[in-house]
Amino acid sequence: MAKSQSSPTGGADRQLLAALEGQACPYCTDGTLERGIYKDNQAVVCESCDTPRVQLWQPGE
After folding, report:
1. Based on C-alpha coordinates, what's the Rg of the chain?
2. Residue 60: left if φ>0, alpha if ψ -120 to 50, beta else—which one?
3. Angle at CA 51, nearest 5°, toward 46 and 24?
4. Rounded-to-integer distance, Cα 27 and Cα 59, Å
């Protein structure tokens, strides 16, 4: 069984979220991406259509 580990790239995860925040949503014409929670995970989600662009989770959770 695999052990749960913290992400060694935690800083890179935050940089990815920051890089996507504020961009236009690729799935709809009206939305902007913003940081939020999607299915209990940190994510970047469209504020208009609620579609996640990226979500982060920890292995084994």
Report:
1. 13
2. left
3. 35
4. 27
CA dihedral sign of residues 2, 6, 15, 53: positive
Q: Which two tokens stand for residue 58?
A: 């920890």
pTM over 0.85: no
Cβ atoms 17, 9 nearer than 8 A:
no
Domain range enclosing 32: 24-61
| pLDDT tens digits, one per residue of 8-18 | 456 888 899 99
In a domain, 56, yes or no: yes
Hey, what are 49's tokens? 């259509």
* Single-letter amino acid code for the residue at 39: K
pLDDT band at 2 (very low <50, low <70, confident <90, very high): very low
